[in-house]
């Protein structure tokens, strides 16, 4: 886990034995469960370390992340990027959301096994969860590595963010046209793209970027629309 250790140190984060053992156990648990349930296509240990751990942490040096106390991860899958961030920032509170109950049950067990107390896993569809007062516009930051067009992803994610908060979408460098197309949708949803930043981290190819979207006004209550509509008819 030398690459992860270097990444943590580059961010000024702890890379002590306890932290490294937690990440090692996390990787082992995911790969063990992966033999029964499809959690990741990445099975090589070093590639896992880079693509799941280092990539997840690539937002951690940014002011919008550092200033956030409450973070929600939409489409978290096996916990990425939320759980690696929760391990490194125990003072922040993380909610990890996925629509597949089987994955969330596994993730909840992984969180418990790791002894992480500042993250919870919730089984829900984003469009339903975002309608609940407990979650709507209650978070300083929403993060997502979900594979979806940014216009669609913004409709699912921005309703969770407080005015003044941020949404960080993990994208590849090939997504520039998609990002440009999404500006109208982001504006309709109360946001504004303020920055796209290439993820520069030890071991990580410079083919990843994070799109930082600022929430500048409340999202209209009609968003997100019912399941399937954002994909069929993007804003």
Please characterize this protein's 3D structure:
The chain has 235 residues and is of the alpha/beta class. The protein is 39% helix and 21% strand. The chain contains eleven helices and seven strands. The chain has helices at residues 2-10, 17-33, 45-56, 63-66, 82-88, 101-114, 126-129, 150-157, 176-181, 183-188, 229-232; strands at residues 70-74, 93-98, 119-123, 139-144, 161-172, 191-198, 208-215. The longest helix is centred in the first third of the chain and has 17 residues, at 17-33. The model has no long low-confidence stretch (mean pLDDT 96).
User: What share of the residues lie within helices?
Assistant: 25-40%
Calculate Rg over CA atoms: 17 Å
Task: Tell me the total number of β-strands.
Answer: 7
Parts with pLDDT < 50 across at least 5 consecutive residues: none
How far the N terminus sits from the C terminus, by CA atoms, comes to: 42 Å
Give the assembly state of these chains: single chain
**Overall 3D shape:** globular
What is the H-and-E element order?
HHHHEHEHEHEHEHHEEH
Task: Report strand %.
Answer: 15-25%
- Which sequence of strands runs across the widest sheet? 3-2-1-4-5-7-6
Our count of helices gives 11
């Amino acid at each position: 886990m030398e690459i992860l250790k270097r990444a943590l140190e580059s961010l000024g984060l702890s890379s002590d034995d306890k932290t490294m053992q937690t990440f090692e156990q996390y990787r082992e648990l995911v790969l063990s469960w992966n033999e029964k349930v499809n959690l990741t296509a990445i099975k090589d240990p070093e590639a896992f370390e880079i693509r799941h751990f280092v990539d997840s942490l690539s937002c951690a040096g940014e002011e919008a992340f550092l200033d956030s106390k409450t973070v929600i991860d939409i489409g978290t899958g096996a916990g990425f990027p939320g759980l690696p961030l929760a391990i490194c920032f125990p003072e922040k509170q993380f909610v990890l959301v996925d629509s597949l109950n089987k994955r969330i049950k596994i993730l909840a067990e992984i969180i418990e096994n790791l002894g992480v107390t500042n993250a919870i896993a919730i089984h829900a569809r984003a469009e339903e969860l975002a309608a609940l007062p407990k979650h709507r516009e209650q978070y300083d930051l929403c993060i997502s590595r979900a594979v979806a067009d940014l216009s669609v992803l913004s409709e699912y994610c921005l309703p969770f963010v407080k005015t003044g908060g941020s949404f960080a979408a993990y994208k590849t460098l090939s997504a520039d046209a998609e990002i440009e197309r999404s500006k109208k949708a982001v504006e309709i949803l109360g946001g504004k793209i303020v920055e796209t930043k290439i993820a520069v981290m030890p071991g990580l190819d410079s083919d990843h970027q994070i799109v930082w979207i600022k929430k500048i006004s409340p999202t209209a209550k009609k968003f997100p629309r019912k399941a399937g509509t954002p994909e069929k008819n993007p804003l």
